[in-house]
Write a structure and sequence with these properties.
Subcellular location: Cell membrane
Strand content: under 5%
Distance between the termini: 71 Å
Shape: globular
Oligomer: single chain
InterPro entries: ABC_transp_permease, LivM-like
Keywords: Cell membrane, Membrane, Transmembrane, Transmembrane helix
Radius of gyration: 26 Å
Number of strands: 6
Largest sheet: 2 strands, antiparallel
Organism: Streptomyces griseoaurantiacus
Structural class: mainly alpha
Order of helices and strands: HHHHHHEEEEEHHHHEHHHHH
Pfam families: BPD_transp_2 (PF02653)
Helix content: 55-70%
Length: about 375
């Protein structure tokens, strides 16, 4: 309970930059958990995660905005996630029959196709310039900075503070769903598929159906992450949802640990926060140029990509189970050290009785 309480208290102490950074990390964590279910648990490689993020983001913008149906934002959010799931369902016959690098190449085509459609369908997506994101609102409560100003315990709650709690609620639901899925029969079936397709089919697992279902669920997670990203950015543009974003998500789950919900969350926070922090502190870090310039060194974004690219290589060589596995090994090592405390640490011990072999036999009369 300490971690949720700490997360809920952060808006009372952090400024807008750190809250916005947390929102980006939360959205990335939701998408990374979905990709971890597909790649880490089911063993299906996907390079098209950015496409489903774009479907969720632009689906919400069109459904809740003008031109568009102008639906209530909560309904638009649900329908945008369903739209991403529908896109995954349309592609699921391919995902159910193709695996490995072949599925990766097939999903890679989705990224290029999606980027072309976002640029061509200007009436819906706004074309190259993108579209503004309609704010989220429940009833009369909007997740924006409104007048009169909202004060909570003397702290003004603007857009970032309000969206922070929305992001926490969405992430908590995503975390809970993923953990239950992994601990239930569907999760065990997906792990069996990843380990041995032949053995899983012998045990009665429907291979194509479970692969397709994993792809649809992963697409819906990506759609939800896309909606939260759109709300955090407040404007969506096609160039953001490119191949680099899909590669970033693969880096997240590899660094964090494949098949782990906590690992995917840690990897998402690392990959998302690193370039933003380097951009903020570029003036104080060596070999970095100021944001927007190339004089004096590398740009913060390029330097961050080099760093977490090196982190991926290091993880693959030294810790194939990622940050989650390294943390688990550290906990086990700490437990062993505590259990091997010396007698001096534990205090004087009671004398032990002599063994039966060392006892002397009393003389008989």
């Amino acid at each position: 309970m300490a971690v949720p309480a700490l997360l809920c208290a952060l808006p009372f102490y952090l400024d807008a930059f750190w809250l916005r950074l947390g929102l980006f990390c939360t959205a990335a964590a939701i998408g990374a958990v979905g990709l971890s279910l597909l790649t880490g648990t089911a063993g299906q490689l996907s390079l098209g995660h950015a496409f489903f993020l774009a479907v969720g983001a632009y689906g919400y913008v069109w459904l809740a905005g003008e031109p568009g149906p102008g639906l209530p934002p909560p309904l638009a959010l649900v329908l945008a996630v369903a739209l991403a799931g529908l896109a995954g369902l349309l592609f699921s016959p391919v995902a159910g029959r193709v695996r490995g690098i072949y599925l990766g190449v097939a999903t890679l085509a989705l990224v290029f196709l999606g980027h072309h459609l976002l640029l061509a369908a200007g009436t819906v997506t706004g074309g190259f310039n993108g579209r503004s994101v309609p704010p989220m609102a429940f009833g009369g409560f909007a997740f924006t900075a409104q007048e009169p100003e909202l004060l909570v315990l003397g702290v003004p709650f603007g857009a970032e503070e309000r969206l922070w709690y929305l992001g926490l609620a969405l992430f908590a639901g995503s975390w809970y769903t993923a953990r239950n899925l992994l601990r239930g029969r569907p999760g065990r079936a997906l792990v069996a598929l990843r380990d041995s397709e032949t053995a899983a089919s012998v045990l009665g697992v429907a291979v194509a159906r479970h692969r397709s279902a994993a792809f649809v669920v992963s697409s819906m997670y990506a759609g939800l992450a896309g909606v939260l990203l759109a709300l955090a950015f407040r404007r969506v543009v096609p160039d953001y949802f490119g191949l680099a974003l899909s590669v970033d998500y693969l880096a997240m789950i590899v660094i964090g640990g494949l098949g782990s919900v906590a690992g995917a969350t840690a990897g998402a926070c690392f990959v998302t926060a690193l370039p933003l922090l380097m951009a903020r502190y570029a003036d104080h870090l060596p070999f970095l140029a100021a944001p927007g310039t190339t004089e004096g060194g590398l740009g913060p974004t390029e330097a961050a990509r080099y760093l977490y690219g090196a982190a991926v290589v290091l993880v693959l060589l030294r810790a194939p189970d990622g940050l989650h596995g390294a943390a688990a090994r550290l906990r086990r090592a700490t437990t062993r050290l505590r259990s091997r405390r010396t007698p001096a640490d534990t205090g004087p011990s009671a004398p032990t009785p002599p063994s039966s072999a060392a006892r002397t036999k009393e003389p008989t009369s």
